[in-house]
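Backbone-to-sequence.
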């Protein structure tokens, strides 16, 4: 029997298949054990899309800006990066060997667009979808069966899963949250303001000034800076943490002390490689707003009507609990 929380998330069709197919059950259980929350999987997909965009060199942030050949190559990069992250063994006939079972990996940016090769027939497939515009992703397992496929009419005879049989997919995670591509989703006028600066430091300052209270990933910083020493542009010794302090803005990174401050302020907690900026104001702790102790005083997120005052100094990695924030 599966735990109730897992069983409840699986539709009746795929649940029947899970109980009938011991290999499917073994692979499903192993993948859920490796990544119960799906966070590792989501990070691989976020990093893979950013790898293809190569923003540090190209300045690109939009999937539509990729060349056709780059989009075609995306599936291979997803396959490689998942294997690196989870250390799957090579399969004998398919891409991976998971729990002693050969599993093929297929990725599509369009839901349902997985191209299934003839050699995958009767094998398990890991079907992966991610959409940067919707900030959603899914991954599921399907035993490839001829009756469930549209016959291929392309040169290599690849097939797709019939829409009416997608309910046979055993979802590991379905329409889960993909880490947001901030540059793609931010207000267009704010984005134009960010890229209007000639210097990388000016662009990074404008990014943290314009995008507050949202997670900003390391690859966004890399794309905006377009410099190899992009992390230097965030640091407190001359980077944005210094230059925006006079505007009352703090920039929290991904180690424990900063995560605790973000949590107490009621802000999104920076995950690995993330930053979250916010304008703050000193308070007596009785203002009714979430507040955090920073640099010997109580601070809360400022409202638009609050007067700007100099921001406190955030704890560094030398003075705080161990963490991994690379920008201190």
């Amino acid at each position: 029997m599966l735990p109730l929380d897992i069983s409840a998330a699986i539709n009746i069709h795929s649940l029947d298949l899970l109980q009938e197919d011991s290999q499917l059950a073994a692979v499903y259980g192993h993948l859920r054990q490796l990544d119960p929350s799906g966070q590792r999987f989501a990070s691989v997909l976020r990093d893979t899309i950013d790898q293809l965009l190569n923003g540090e060199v190209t300045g690109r942030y939009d999937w539509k800006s990729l060349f056709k050949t780059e989009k075609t190559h995306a599936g291979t990069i997803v396959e490689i990066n998942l294997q690196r992250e989870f250390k799957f063994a090579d399969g004998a006939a398919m891409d991976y060997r998971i729990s002693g079972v050969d599993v093929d990996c297929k990725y599509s940016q369009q839901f349902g667009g997985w191209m299934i090769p003839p050699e995958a027939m009767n094998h398990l497939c890991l079907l992966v979808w991610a959409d940067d515009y919707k900030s959603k992703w899914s991954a599921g397992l399907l035993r490839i069966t001829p009756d469930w496929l549209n016959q291929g009419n392309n040169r290599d005879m690849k097939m797709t899963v019939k829409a009416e049989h997608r309910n046979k997919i055993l979802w590991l995670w379905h329409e889960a949250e993909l880490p947001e591509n901030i540059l793609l989703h931010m207000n267009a006028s704010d984005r134009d303001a960010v890229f209007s600066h000639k210097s990388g430091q000016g662009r990074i300052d404008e990014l943290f000034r314009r995008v507050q209270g949202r997670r900003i990933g390391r690859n966004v910083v890399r794309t905006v800076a377009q410099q190899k020493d992009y992390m230097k542009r965030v640091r407190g010794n001359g980077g944005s943490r210094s230059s925006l302090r006079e505007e009352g803005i703090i920039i929290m990174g991904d180690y424990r002390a900063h995560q605790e401050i973000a949590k107490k302020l009621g802000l999104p907690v920076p995950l690995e490689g993330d930053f979250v900026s916010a304008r703050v104001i000193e308070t007596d702790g009785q203002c009714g707003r979430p507040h955090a102790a920073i640099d010997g005083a109580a601070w809360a997120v400022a409202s638009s009507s609050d007067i700007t005052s100099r921001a406190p100094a955030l704890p560094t990695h030398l003075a705080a609990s161990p963490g991994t924030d690379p920008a201190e």
